[in-house]
Specification:
The chain is an alpha/beta fold and about 210 residues long. It is built from 5 helices and 6 strands; from the N terminus they run H-E-H-E-H-E-H-E-E-E-H.
């Protein structure tokens, strides 16, 4: 499938989901994938509510970028959820606290739109375009986008990105569990939870039921 076809299919899925699920929102971390997703969704409708789940340990650049983009894109239906990282264990970073705050973010909704991709890591290869858990639907429009597709979309559409990427990061989480690339042959999410048993793993919001 070509890049243009992937974008067209993603937009079609967004349009279909907005029509099918009246109570729907978009999850945005303000990373590269989220910015691709957010731009794509807003190309279909600018009225879709947006939420973020941010730890109190994010990079300062992430907070600054969030504030800048909400203002620059005039995102009116935006809700920020902040959670506290209480554990000192990096392997527990962005685990249970993030899942609990995510449940609040999607409470009472029919569905939410996510920016996960299959090629990010082995934990995501079996994800589907439409997933349902306990009555809550998760829509993954850019599931088949590669890392190159994401950067291509951002470049073609002049979408701003978090400045931390210029420092060698390929996958951004919080400041405690994210590290820049060290080897050109490592996987995209190798910098997440590096040095722990959770390396390349998941925070849980894409694998655990949120209802």
């Amino acid at each position: 499938m070509t890049f243009v076809e992937k974008v067209a299919d993603a937009k079609a899925l967004v349009k279909e989901s907005l029509e099918k699920y009246p109570k729907i929102t978009v999850g945005c971390s303000f990373g590269k994938d989220s910015m691709t997703l957010l731009h794509l969704v807003r190309s279909v409708s600018v009225d879709v509510p947006v939420f973020s789940l941010l730890a109190d340990t994010e990079f300062q650049e992430t907070y600054d970028f969030e504030k800048r983009m909400v203002a620059q894109w005039n995102i009116k239906n935006y809700q920020r959820y902040i959670f506290t990282q209480e554990s000192t264990d990096v392997a527990s970073c962005c685990g249970a606290p993030k899942i609990e705050i995510a449940k609040k973010a999607v409470e009472g909704l029919d569905a939410w739109i996510s920016g996960v991709r299959k090629t990010e890591g082995i934990t995501r290869v079996d994800f589907q375009y439409i997933e349902e858990k306990n009555g809550l639907v998760k829509v993954n429009p850019i599931l088949d986008f590669t890392e190159l597709d994401v950067w291509r979309y951002l470049a073609v559409n002049n979408v701003p990105v978090n400045p931390k990427y210029s420092e060698g990061f390929r996958s951004l989480g919080c400041a405690r569990c994210s590290f820049p690339e060290e080897d050109e042959n490592e996987s995209e999410r190798a910098g997440r939870w590096k040095g722990t048993t959770k390396v390349c793993g998941e925070c849980g919001i894409h694998t655990q039921p949120l209802r």
